[in-house]
Amino acid sequence: MSLHNLAPLLSPTSVAVIGGSDRPGSVGQVVVENLLSGGFAGPVYLVNPRPLSVVGTTWSATIADLPKPPELAVVAVPAVAVPQVVADLGATGVKVAVILSAGITEANGLRKAMLEAARPFGLRIIGPNGLGLLAPHAQLNASFARGAPGPGGLALISQSGALVSGVIDWANTRQLGFSGIVSVGDMAEVDLGDLIDLFAADPHTDAILLYVEGVTNAAKFMSAARAAARIKPVIALKAGRNAASGKAVRSHTGALAGAYDVHACAFERAGVVQVETLTDLFDAAAVLRAGRSLAGERLAIVTNGGGAGILALDAMASSGGVLAELGPQTLDRLNALLPAGWSHGDPVDLMGDASAERYRLALDAVLADAGVDAVLVMNCPTALSKPGDIARGVAASIVAARERGLRKPVIACWLGDANQDAAGPILSASGVPMFGAPDAAARALGHLLAARRAKAGLMAAPARHDERVGDRAAALELIRAARSQGRTLLNEVEAKALLNAYGVATVPTRLAATAQDVARLCAELAPPYAVKIVSPQISHKSDLGGVALDLPNAEAASAAAAAMAARIAKTRPDAMITGFAVETMIPLRRAHELIVGLAQDATFGPVLMVGAGGKAVEVLKDRALGLPPLDGDLAHAMIAKTQISRLLAGYRDEPQADIAEVAATLEALSAIAVDLPDIVELDINPLRVDAYGVLALDARIVITPDADPGSRLVIRPVPMEWAADLRTRSGVAFHVRPVRPDDTPAVAAFFAQLDAEDLRLRFLSPLRTVDAGRLALMTQVDYRRTMTFLAFDADRQTVIATAMLASGADPERAEVAVAVRSDLKGHGLGWTLLDHVLRYARAQGVKVVHSIESADNVAALQLERDMGFTARICPDDTGLRIVEHQIDVSANA
Fold first, then answer.
1. Residue numbers of the domain that contains 764
2. What is the 3-state secondary structure of 719-783?
3. In angstroms, rounded to a whole number, what is the distance separating the alpha carbons of residues 66 and 239?
4. Is there a contact between 736 and 792 (Cβ–Cβ < 8 Å)?
5. What are the helix (H) ranges across 806-846?
6. pTM, whole model, 2 decimals?
7. What count of other Cβ atoms lies within 10 Å of the Cβ of residue 773?
8. d(Cα 686, Cα 553) in Å, to the nearest integer?
9. 705 in a domain, yes or no?
């Protein structure tokens, strides 16, 4: 439902407190007191069977007695009464309620009853068991939090009510304001994704902070976070770093892919910046207030202590920033301003006797340098100057720079508590965050850089796309055969056959039923041999002596099989030995051993892994995670995060390994994750990698016991089932398919061929070229919200038309925009392509498709009228028309 009925949360015109009270210390009384003391301008209604007389409120005995339906309801009644209260609110016309009551659980049935009561009315529920809601720009404090923040640009969505009061105290001491704070409680209905969408669309919000204990609807969360992070920073603190996984797993991948790390992987894919501590969350909030205009990663340091500058440099290494190289003009300017003994470079050492005026003039010069993106200003206490005076000089320089149009982020570090107390309020008033130590300032800079990188990653040039299509039918037959025998563990031969179906090279392997059969099957393979036990009860064969390597001949292989069978019969009498896997022994020589795998996370579904492999895989714990689907660039990025990637790159006389084939293997596993939700766990360990390619030496696959478990992907893959060969009414044939990330050059070439007037009509702006940002929005799409269809001519290389359908946060409404190459207009391309888009929209459950057209775009308006659209004048601009089409989604049934 996303934003449906949530708008009143941040700007309600009236509020009702169900369970409002005048009893001191009760939740209902505190909420009412906070509402009134916060200055909320609208009517405040109190609903309580007991008569109340509270100045500034209107009392009603029941919800039905309210003089008019409030836009927002706050519920503070005993848990058992909540379902009936929700039903009464819905019947009255209330659209959103904040439930503060605790004790509403699945176990006692109240949660289900509450949701069922809300459903017929579309009533949205925040909570239950939360602290409430604060919207400072509306002077709304509908919570029982202690204190209230001022208005500002930060939004906080917290799964901890206790954390909220601490954040408010912290923010007030630092003069940081909020656009909204929501304590989500148990998230019975409205979840993180809904609220991220809400604040992403809120014009008062500059950055979104999250305190996350668990994600409920991962697909919605990923979609909302990715959309929000494109336009404003999203920062998350995830609790539970050391929590146990809570279940046993049979694969190395499952054992290594912890829940916290999977959340971190998902956050990165969504463009969310993750911090490790509550202090980091606060620091990130402070620097983001100052740093939305960060253009690059070049840092200048201005200090009165050379040692402090060196410490800042050391700490900066972990943040990823780079030291700016000051330009000649800046150096000349500083040479004229500073004593002869200054550092003559970055860091700019102003010397220990630096005055406020020296700080001001030096900072003026550094901020004006085009090669500087951000500045760290440091002050070490001396008896020659007062920290407050220095702060005033710095603030004066920053204000002057902004007046000149320079809004570069400035971070301050004043060493010593007393200095911070003196300088902090002065700098904070100028929007400069203050830190007390170089390492803290460097970490804060890291948050700023991470936010910039996250946004840049979402808007970056598209990744290379190597489409690998596997033999899904063959893989499903292998899975069906195992299920027919009551097995959920594929044997090694089956597992390798499934990998072969997706193009992963494996060692040819034979399955021998007995130790005697091992010798016979060796004749089909070249020596030396490797023999492994095959048992559905044994996952890690080497742990029990179930692997014999480097066997010189068939007799040795057969004897090794018999010996391991006898050994395992004693140590694991419960294990049923179904046979022996026999293969040619592949020596490692100058090769590396990796592990690549696939496991299922309880929240985010299938997760891919790559890292150092072999027997010590769980000891080394060198691995990186990724969410499918992924492409070549994402696969290479995963590999680069591992320690073993340094060895793969080659060193001294060791050649570089074929990293591209490792990436291709990850892409194959990604395709398996997309095609085969039946697979619960998959390990290739080891994957032998050398300069000539990769080879899977061992494989293990666990499947679900039941067929067709349904996809658990939280990132929707390219819906290639919507590719089609179409023909216009005039007979023009063309191919249409969904956009892929690597289509940017083709889309750019298409728009480059449009004439100026067609560009203006498509983008409602006098563009000369379509910039990288607009191209990324069309090609780097989240298929849950946006679809771009490309129409190709006969060569399937040249784009001749495009259509973009974007639903945003409301899945029932979508905006469409169609463009046809200027020299091909008038042949029915637009009509046929739009018809394809409308069929897609209907299949996705979209109820209203609309577009915004220029009033002089006669051809488009006529086409849309012919297709059943209706047009009306845009109330905000009479030169535009809003064109809408109602879709009958019942046709999907």
1. 720-892
2. CHHHCEEEECCCCCEEEEEECCHHHHHHHHHHHHHCCHHHHHHHHCCCCCCCCHHHHHHHHCCCC
3. 41
4. yes
5. 829-843
6. 0.87
7. 9
8. 23
9. no
Query: Residue 9, Cα to own-chain centre: how many angstroms?
Result: 24
Pick left, alpha or beta for residue 106 (phi over 0 → left; psi -120 to 50 → alpha; otherwise beta).
alpha
Q: How many domains does the chain have?
A: 3
For the record, the structure tokens of 626 come out as: 């990724």
Task: Name the residue among 225, 205, 207, 216 with its Cα closest to residue 271.
Answer: 225
Edge-first strand listing for the sheet containing 547-551:
509-512, 579-584, 529-534, 547-551
- List all residues 6 or more positions away from 163 whose beta carbon is below 8 Å from its beta carbon: 211, 278
How open is the CA angle 795-798-804, to the nearest 5 degrees?
Answer: 125
Give the number of other Cβ atoms within 10 Å of residue 350's Cβ.
29
614 and 685 Cβ atoms separated by less than 8 Å: yes
What is the chain's mean pLDDT, rounded? 88
In the DSSP assignment, the letter for residue 649 is T
> Cβ(476)–Cβ(677) under 8 Å?
no
Dist CA 160 CA 162 (whole Å): 5
Distance, in Å, from the CA atom of 87 to the CA atom of 94, rounded to the nearest integer, reads 10
Backbone angles phi, psi at 598, to 5 degrees: -140, 130
What is the band of 468 on the pLDDT scale with cuts at 50, 70, 90?
low
Same domain, 213 and 355: no
- For 266, the token pair is 């998902």
Domain presence at residue 573: no
**Cα Rg of the chain (Å, integer):** 32
Same domain, 380 and 412: yes
The 10s digit of each residue's pLDDT in 248-261 is: 334 444 444 458 88
- Per-residue pLDDT, 257: 47
Residue 63 to residues 47, 80, 462: CA-CA distances in angstroms? Answer: 6, 17, 54
